[in-house]
Amino acid sequence: MPDTPKTPDARPNAEVAERTIQSGDLLRLTRDASPQFVRAVTVRVIRVLADRHTYHGWLWIECYELAPHGDAVARRELYLMPEGVRWLTAPPAPVRRRRSVVPRWVTV
Q1: Percent helix, strand, coil in the chain (nearest 5)?
Q2: Cβ distance 78 to 34 under 8 Å?
């Protein structure tokens, strides 16, 4: 049997590298990401705040919270577990806003 070189990275069941959160990512945050998200939130990442100390497996991000129609409604700093994040491929579809009908008074 020939000798094969053993390297620390040559594990038969090595886990696939996880996707990392980066600027510009569009994320859907639910209770899987953190207990603080009682209702799901859609955000666009500004940056990962890597200089903050966190528990293992958690991180801070700075982001814009997006409304259902895709507009940024708040700038937030959030603490979450990347394993619970769902990546979105496209922003929410914009809602066409209809102009409200204003009654016009006609004088005769």
Answers
A1: 5, 30, 70
A2: yes
